[in-house]
Design a protein that fits this description.
The structure holds 2 protein chains of 2 kinds. Chain A has helices at about 20, 95-105, 130-140, 155; strands spanning about 70-75, 110-115, 120-125, 160-165, 170-175. By secondary structure, chain A is of the alpha+beta class. Chain A has a domain at about 110-175: Phosphatidylinositol 3-kinase Catalytic Subunit, Chain A, domain 1 (Ubiquitin-like (UB roll), Roll). In chain A, strand 4 (about 160-165) and strand 5 form a beta hairpin. The longest helix of chain A has 12 residues, at about 130-140. Chain B is an alpha/beta fold. Chain B has 21 helices and 23 strands. In chain B, helix 6 packs parallel to helix 7 (about 140-150) and helix 16 runs parallel beside helix 17 (about 440-450). Chain B is globular and about 70 Å long. The chains are: A alpha+beta, B alpha/beta. At the A-B interface, helix 2 and helix 3 of A face strand 11, helix 16 and helix 17 of B.
């Protein structure tokens, strides 16, 4: 559903308003108060005017890429808003302790498996080890090669090799670096 | 006139517990005032600057429990500088010097230093309960003092505070002789805790009913704690991440099943969604579920969890539950009274997932709904009108559309009619927060219909002074009004300055009020403190009365100007 923002209307001329529009009615709200459709954005300070440019910190690991015969992990920039977006101080009204806590929890990365029609996104915070992560890849991608639920030796048993591209753009085998 | 001896009246007053009622009782006559004040044990002070500790002590010598609130509400959203005020130290110092036998202290939005905590811990022999909500200024050293010195401590409850965690062993400071704990909540602490000390503490606290852990407490410790405290009623889980096939997880399942008294569940500060089935056995008894710090829990796993919670009365959740998930809530939680949906993406990158549809579903499925906090992408008038019809019992209705001036996306109209329907239908509405595109019209409705309204929060709304005037003239029970970024100016501010004496406080920021207007209020009403908060120090260079004021906070007080205001606050 595409939502259109209403364009800022020009200051309305008070004298051009009809008497009907300014008359106070005791009717129930919602029962069709005559609306000329003109939205008066005149006197108030617009939201846009009060926008303050805030820099939102970018996430940690940047691991872009994708390749044949591999399951790859791509960093999508956890928590990064679209570049053009600006923010207002104190909006939305969420306590800073809550904002901080939520931001820390998100560490989303994109996962692509060669041959799969679309990518998936996982939150690295939800896993405590590589084993769990790889197990979840099974669930997400419905790998045909699932003989046992316990992954004993990643390299030998899986047809698909989990790799990732690190920030130096090198291809790394999953498992060498400790999980934390 | 008394037909009964004082002792009889005192005994009768014992049954009157609400602050409002006791205040009323004290106004009946001199004799009742005297009896009431000597027998009063619990006092609530909504604005710490409205009265002084000395006067409090003089009037209520039998004080045992004190609740204090400091900073204005908008301080939660970074609109008030940190050192603006709200220091608790002078209160503790004064109480310590007196002969007050303080047993309970509950603080909200106050600055609490380690020094105050230490003084508190050493000054009151029978001190039992410390509750800190949204406070700051202390470290775990202060907590260590409380743990070490309060021999009969029953409750230490820390909610959403900014604590400097020195990773010290504050938990180890509870002496072996401390066995009186009923409630321990340290979920907001960010540092490591001594897990062994925690286990021993829980083991020797047979009355422990409420335990909320922080993120540093892993699953295996949780399992051990639950084995030692199966009597818990309220549990906050720290870390819930583990391999579902591990031994620890099996042990946890057993431990949880023994906890048949748990009615309230929160936390999951770290969560692995595939482990949630261990929780199912206790879900059926839950009346309060708080998953608002668990963004890892969403989709089917979340819905499955909720489907087990048939007795839920209060649900705090993130918007990643989606409209579909709210549909599941509507089908399952027929006893639901309070719903809070928080944004999982507070910076609005467009991932927020609830709209008016979810709210309508809940309103249709949960007729007992009376309290709402809802952060959403969009809202329509039609939806609000439906919600108003479905749920006429709202006491609290707080709607936050992430784009604060967004109109009804279907009709492109402002949301005046929708909110109008809410205030007209919900005759008991006490608290209202507005958002979305709004004109003066909505305030006309509020003034007309919101007869019980006590607190109103407005942002980016209205077209003229008329909006504010409708509210001030209409809402007779208004106590707190907070406004930001609205075109309200001096005409509205000055229309009825006497009104502000009937209210606790008024906050106006980024509006059109001028220095001259504020001065005028201060001049006419000596019983108000009118504070100008000027962080950019514009006022220093330009004392022109026509200058617009960035932030004004005024409140009634019996003790005149406060002496602890920082440089950038002028009290007119």
């Amino acid at each position: 559903m595409v939502l259109k923002e209403e364009p800022k209307s020009p200051e309305s001329d008070v004298t051009s308003m009809s008497f009907e529009e300014t008359k106070l009615t005791l009717g129930l709200p919602g029962e069709g108060r005559s609306s000329a459709g003109a939205v008066k954005c005149s006197a108030k300070r617009g939201f846009v005017e009060t926008v303050v440019d805030l820099k939102v910190g970018s996430s940690g690991n940047c691991m872009p890429g994708g390749r044949d015969d591999t399951t790859t992990v791509i960093d999508s920039g956890a928590g990064k808003p679209p570049p053009a977006k600006e923010q207002v101080v104190g909006w939305p009204p969420v306590r800073s302790s809550r904002k901080k806590a939520i931001n820390e929890r998100f560490r989303y990365v994109k996962v692509a498996m060669d041959g799969a029609p679309f990518l998936r996104k996982v939150n690295l915070q939800c896993y405590s080890s590589y084993n769990q992560l790889l197990k979840d890849f099974d669930n997400l991608f419905d790998c045909s090669n699932k003989e046992e639920s316990k992954l004993m030796d990643v390299v030998k048993r899986m047809e698909y090799v989990p790799t990732y591209e690190d920030k130096d753009n090198d291809w790394m085998l999953v498992g060498d670096v400790p999980w934390k | 006139m008394n037909y009964f001896p004082d002792e009889v009246l005192e005994h009768v007053f014992d049954f009157i517990t609400s602050h409002k009622d006791r205040n009323s009782v004290s106004l009946v006559c001199k004799s009742w005032h005297k009896i009431e004040r000597y027998s009063r044990q619990r006092v609530f002070i909504g604005n710490c600057y409205s009265i002084s500790p000395e006067r409090l002590i003089a009037r209520f010598p039998g004080l045992k429990s004190l609740t204090l609130k400091g900073k204005p509400h908008f301080a939660d959203f970074n609109l008030v500088p940190h050192d603006w005020g709200g220091f608790v130290y002078p209160w503790i110092k004064a109480l310590a010097k007196s002969r007050i036998g303080l047993e309970e202290l509950r603080l909200k939005r106050m600055v609490v230093s380690d020094e105050s905590l230490e003084l508190l811990s050493k000054s009151f022999v029978n001190f039992k309960s410390l509750v800190l909500v949204s406070c700051e200024g202390f470290t775990t050293d202060g907590l260590a003092a409380i743990a070490a010195n309060c021999r009969f401590l029953r409750e230490l409850d820390l909610q959403e505070n900014e604590v400097d965690d020195h990773r010290g062993h504050w938990l180890s400071c509870f002496p072996e002789s401390c066995t009186s704990l009923i409630s321990l909540n340290f979920a907001c602490l960010r540092g490591e805790v001594n897990l062994g000390a925690l286990e021993r503490l829980v083991s020797r606290s047979p009355n422990l009913k409420s335990l909320r852990l922080n993120r540093a407490v892993p699953l295996d410790t949780l399992q051990k704690l639950l084995m030692r405290a199966p009597q818990l009623v309220d549990l906050g889980i720290g870390s819930y991440v583990h391999d579902p096939f591990s031994e620890v997880y099996n042990k946890l399942k057993i431990a949880i099943q023994r906890c048949k008294s748990i009615r309230s569940l929160s936390g999951f500060l770290e969560v692995a969604p595939h482990c949630m089935s261990a929780i199912y056995p206790i879900c059926g008894n839950l009346t309060f579920l708080n998953l608002s710090y668990a963004p890892g829990l969403h989709g089917n796993k979340l819905m499955k969890l909720i489907q087990h919670c048939r007795k839920l009365q209060r649900l705090w959740i993130l918007d990643c539950i989606g409209d579909k998930g709210l549909g599941v809530v509507a089908l399952t939680c027929k006893e639901l009274q309070e719903l809070r949906v928080f944004p999982s993406d507070p910076f609005g990158a467009g991932n927020a997932a609830v709209t008016e549809e979810g709210l309508v579903l809940v309103s249709a499925g949960c007729p007992k709904l009376n309290s709402l906090l809802y952060f959403c992408q969009q809202m329509t008038n039609a939806a609000l009108i439906t919600v108003a019809k479905n749920c006429p019992n709202f006491i609290r209705f707080r709607l936050c559309i992430l784009d604060p001036i967004k109109p009804d996306p279907v009709t492109n109209q402002p949301l005046d009619e929708g909110f109008g329907a809410i205030v007209q239908s919900c005759k008991g509405l006490k608290r209202l927060s507005l958002s979305g595109l709004l004109t003066d019209q909505v305030f006309l409705y509020i003034g007309m219909y919101a007869e019980q309204l006590e607190m109103l929060s407005i942002a980016f709304a209205a077209d003229s002074d008329k909006g504010m005037l409708y509210v001030l003239n209409g809402c007779k029970k208004l106590r707190k009004l907070e406004i930001r970024d609205c075109p309200f100016g001096d005409a509205a501010l000055l229309e009825d300055v006497g009104k502000y004496e009937t209210m606790r406080s008024l906050w106006m920021s980024s509006c059109e009020v001028t220095l001259g207007g504020c001065k005028s209020v201060a001049e006419k009403m000596p019983s108000l403190n009118v504070e100008i908060i000027d962080e950019c120090e514009q006022m220093e260079f330009n004392l022109d009365d026509k200058q617009k004021v960035d932030k004004m906070y005024l409140y009634r007080t019996l003790v005149g100007h406060r002496k602890d205001a920082p440089e950038y606050v002028s009290i007119l």
